[in-house]
Amino acid sequence: MKNIKLSSLKEKEKTIVRVGHVKVGEGFCVIAGPCTVESEQQTVETARAVKESGADMLRGGAFKPRTSPYAFQGLGLKGLKILKKAKEETGLPIVTEVIDTRDVPWVTEYADVLQIGARNMQNFSLLKEVAKSHKPVLLKRGMNSTMEEFLNCAEYILDGGNPNVILCERGVRTFETYTRNTLDISAVPSLKELTHLPVIVDPSHASGRVSLVPPLSFAAVAAGADGLIVEVDINPAEAVCDKEQTLSPVQFGKMIKKIRSLYQFMSEKP
Ligand code: PEP
Ligand code: MN
What is the pTM for the complete model shown? Predict the structure, then answer.
């Protein structure tokens, strides 16, 4: 693969990204939470519920990259403050998206992990800006991007001075319409043989359907992923964004139990 230098497996055996007490790339990391931060009650209650089930980090968007300019764009700074509150209540580190270079310095003050969304994977100015931050970056694969393009984007962040990059496969666009995207499960073992960076899977945006989130999550574990980022809400029926793919705490609790035992099984030496 062309120009893949710093992220290449030839460079290093394995990167473990430390986020507080969590080590992404060692064991199996589960990031869970609402698509969007809507209110303090919704976020804090969801954070408590996912923590109770054993999630390692909390996700939640304060800035939402929406297809329509008329759709809810996120609470912005208010949302970040709510995430901070949820962290104080639960101890869960915060993963949240940054969509604008101008926001990077102050989103960094609230986030433990800066998420670069699929739509911004090749926003090179944003990549250069998060490279300057001392916070880990969760880089999502663009919906129309090859793995080579994906790794080149990781390369921008590494070359810019930030070694803490987590890759996320979140489904790619195909002719299929039943699912929101098509989870490219082969990306997981492929990336594992190309790069030392940890690889996680987003089964929520990959499928767009609650019923498909558990099976895709199990497939991710079996394929060798280092973790998952999953949408969970205290009340999915009322979620402003992505309710069709959002698990309830009960559904998440059942799924994570199976994930933990499946991971253990996969890690056993024959
Ligand atoms: C998200 O995780 O909130 C999100 C918008 O996902 P993606 O960038 O993968 O579409
Ligand atoms: Mn979402």
Answer: 0.98
140-144 long-range CB contacts below 8 Å, 24 or more apart? 140/115, 140/116, 140/168, 140/170, 140/202, 141/167, 141/168, 141/169, 141/170, 141/172, 141/184, 141/187, 142/118, 143/118, 143/119, 143/170, 143/171, 143/172, 143/173, 143/181, 144/172, 144/173
CB 47 within 8 A of CB 33: yes
Report the DSSP pairing between strands 199-201 and 227-231.
parallel
Neighbours of ion ligand 2 (CB under 5 A): 35, 242
Ligand 1 centre distance from Cα of residue 270 (Å): 37
Instruction: For ligand 1, say whether the CB of 117 is within 6 Å of any of its atoms.
Output: yes
pLDDT digits 0-9 by tens, 196-244? 999 999 999 999 999 999 999 999 999 999 999 999 999 999 999 999 9
How far is residue 252 from each of residues 1, 20, 24, measured CA to CA in Å? 37, 23, 20
Task: Compute the distance from residue 224 Cα to the ligand 1 centre, in Å.
Answer: 22
d(CA 131, CA 184): 26
Q: Which residues partner with 247 through β-bridges?
A: 232
Contacts of 236 (CB under 8 A, 6+ apart): 210, 243, 246, 247, 248
Residue 131 identity (one-letter amino acid) = A
Nearest residue CA, atom 8 of ligand 1? 117
| Both structure tokens of 195 | 């790069």
pLDDT in tens, 122-141: 999 999 999 999 999 999 99
